[in-house]
Every structure is written in structure tokens, then in C-alpha cells.
Write a structure and sequence with these properties.
41% of the residues lie in helices and 16% in strands. The protein is an alpha/beta fold. The protein has one domain: Rossmann fold, CATH 3.40.50. It has a four-stranded parallel β-sheet, sandwiched between helices. The protein has a two-stranded parallel sheet with strand order 1-2. Strands 6-10 form a two-stranded parallel sheet. Helix 3 (65-83) links the parallel strand 3 and strand 4 (86-92). The longest helix has 19 residues, at 65-83.
């Protein structure tokens, strides 16, 4: 998200600090890099000092999920509140219904934000094109073929986030999803036509959180406002050599 968001903030005239755990992160010209860690709470006060808004997009779906989402969000909230800043938390459509552990952690973080006495906004989005492509790059994907997804361009989400910075606190705002709800089988076949590479979809029982994905709790067809289709994104990536 940061690679899409920072250039848009700069283009709209905002001063931007980028928090990263890396010692010397590469940031676009005009932005300032600050080293820190949301889990440990290190460097956050420096990053947030004097700011009007803090966008919390740090996440870790595969490692120390709860610590990143819940403890990290508490730490971010504390420094945002101290700075008098508007906190914007980036979440996922369906986190309050899907039993996937990562989603449950995001839902817990949302509740931390909602219970705070600070100034805040929560935006839920569907899955980014980049994320789904990463799934397919694994070559084997354990998922029922009928599982729906609504891929959205991260740039479309970034545009919405910049609007929220300028609009001020909005609470739980309307979800944002991509232009189409498609099955994972359809998305896989479309990717094969454009890139020549196809993943193997491995059927798994429709139980637990798998059932929740098949039910489409992570989609929002009533808010299909994204402008870039899956095929458009793939064609652009293919043209750029990605």
C-alpha cells in the first residue's frame, strides 16, 4: 500500500513521513523516512509528532499477526492521540464475519480503534490485485474453485485514503471493492491467458474459514467502485515486464 499511497499524498501537496523497520528505507523524493516498529512502539512518537493524520497500513498476515494488528494498533493510537492526529486504519472487507485468523486479528484491531476516544476512520477494502497474484505465483493454491474474490487496485484504495486525510475523521466509512466479483477459477484462467502461467487449484473441504471465503464474506458487490479490472492490471504488469 505504501508504494501507491506515498506518491499520491505528495502529489496532493502533503508533507509525508514513512515509518519502516528497515534501517534505510527507500522513499520517494519529498518524503521523509523514519525508522520504527509498531509492535515495539519504537520510533512512533518521532513519526507522529506534529502530524495532522496517521495512516496505519502496517500489517503482517504470516508472522506475529496479533501483535502487529492489536498491540501495534494500540501503540499507533497512543501516539496519534498525543499528537492530536486523525488515525486512519486500513482494514479488510468481512473481518467481522470471516474466521480466518488474520481477519480475526484485523477485527480485534478495529474494535480497539472504535473504543478509543481519539479521532479516527476505518476503511475496509477487498483483496488487492498484487495479493491475488502472489497467491497464484505459489503455483499450488488450496482453495475451492468457486471461491469468489473482488480484486481491487491498491491505487484506487490509496486515492480513497488521501481523500480521507483531507476530509477528516469519518468513523467506519463505506467499504471499497474492485469492479467485479469473480471466482478464483475464473481469475486463474484469465491470468493464464495473459501471462501464460497457471496455478493448480487444490480443492479443500468447505469448513471453518474456508467456508467463509466460499460464502464471499470478503466481497462487497454493492460497493464495486474500483476502476481497474483484473485483466487490465495483468496487462499493465505484463507490459512492464512484471
Amino acid at each position: 500500500m505504501g508504494s501507491y499511497l506515498v506518491p499520491r499524498l505528495l502529489a496532493r501537496g502533503h508533507d509525508v513521513r514513512v515509518l519502516s523497520r528497515r534501517p534505510a528505507p527507500t522513499v520517494p523524493a519529498g518524503a521523509t523516512a523514519v525508522r520504527g516498529d509498531v509492535r515495539a512502539g519504537v520510533g512512533l512518537d518521532v513519526a507522529a509528532a506534529g502530524t495532522d493524520a496517521v495512516i496505519h497500513a502496517a500489517t503482517s498476515p504470516n508472522r506475529r499477526v496479533k501483535a502487529t494488528e492489536v498491540a501495534g494498533t494500540r501503540n499507533i493510537l497512543a501516539v496519534a492521540r498525543a499528537a492530536g492526529a486523525h488515525l486512519i486504519y486500513v482494514s479488510i472487507v468481512g473481518v467481522d464475519r470471516n474466521r480466518f485468523p488474520y481477519y480475526k486479528a484485523k477485527w480485534a484491531a478495529e474494535q480497539v480503534v472504535e473504543a478509543s476516544d481519539g479521532r479516527w476512520t476505518i476503511l475496509r477494502a477487498t483483496q488487492f490485485h498484487d495479493l491475488l497474484d502472489r497467491f497464484f505465483r505459489g503455483r499450488i493454491l488450496p482453495m475451492p474453485r468457486a471461491t469468489p474474490f473482488q480484486p481491487v487496485h491498491a491505487g484506487d484504495v490509496a486515492d480513497r485514503l488521501v481523500d480521507m486525510v483531507e476530509a477528516g475523521p469519518g468513523g467506519r466509512v463505506i467499504d471499497i471493492g474492485g469492479p467485479q466479483v469473480r471466482t478464483i477459477k475464473d481469475l486463474n484462467e484469465s491470468r493464464a491467458r495473459i501471462t501464460g502461467k497457471k496455478a493448480l487449484l487444490l480443492p479443500v473441504p468447505k469448513v471453518g474459514f474456508v467456508r467463509d471465503f466460499v460464502a464471499g464474506y470478503h466481497t462487497c458487490p454493492d460497493h464495486a467502485v474500483g476502476r481497474v479490472s483484473w485483466e487490465d492490471w495483468l496487462q499493465t504488469r505484463a507490459g512492464a515486464g512484471g
